[in-house]
Amino acid sequence: MHKLVLLAVVGLAAQLVDGSLGMAYGVTSSTLLLAIGTNPAAASATVHLAEIGTTLASGVSHWRFGNVDWRVVRRVGVPGAIGAFVGATFLANLAMDTAKPVMSLILLTLGVYILVRFTVKGLRKDRLGQPLRKRFLAPLGLFAGFVDATGGGGWGPVGTPALLASGRMEPRKVIGSIDTSEFLVSVAASLGFLVALGSAGIDMVWVLALLLGGVIAAPIAAWLVRHLPPRILGSAVGGIIVLTNARTLLRSDWLDLGGTAVEAWVLGGIAVIWAAAIAWSVRAYRREQADEARAAADLATDDPAVAAPAPAQDATPHLDEPVAAPR
User: Where does the record place Low complexity bias (predicted)?
Assistant: First the structure.
């Protein structure tokens, strides 16, 4: 019973982060399942079965808060589903320990770019609103879906930074669209695992525990992402990408520093830089808000139509107007 409660809490926390930042549900949940001895294929299958429900709840919540671009969902989600099905059947027969460091290095580079871009310059606005092309979204979805199924998570870490880096969508719509399209990926990956593995190693009680926590968190996360300023949200997303993938690289066969003092110092240093970046973004956002408020006040002063208040209505009746007799 204690383990089921823990799984539900992990599902809630993972979906709260995933729905707010567009990533981390699969990575967080898969990490816990692997830590308690579940084999990689069964862990990924368990997480993806739970994600069918959590992504559906998250998608509906994001849609109700206006965070979804349905054209992007369709163009990235369908190729993502194909990639996820292929990745699931591939993982059932082969582990991806060799490819994992390469993947993490690519994601780490993207994370550094997002962190620096949003912290230093804020949201790129010169391309905001321009359409994303299918020739960009389709390969992105195919690759992200494959990574997601083989790694037990990866749809958000691949898709979210790529769309943010394009500068063509608001961060909240990037996150809402990625979370919503993940429903297609989760269904396809689950079908792939069931075809390749059957139900071997999949504990449906664990699936339901993860699902329960995720469903509770989904509407909270969708509301939160709508109210977080884009600059702060971008810094938060970039930091979590850098921290997560730096940890993976440090524990890979390339470096083999897992559990050492070096790992603790490196991850601690990244966490400090991440916190400083978010603090910087908060200050920059407040300055931007203050500048906008001053500009609006100056405009109101310069424009008489805005500056002059409307004349107050005189409550006293004029002498030539009839006054109603008291009843």
Answer: 306-316
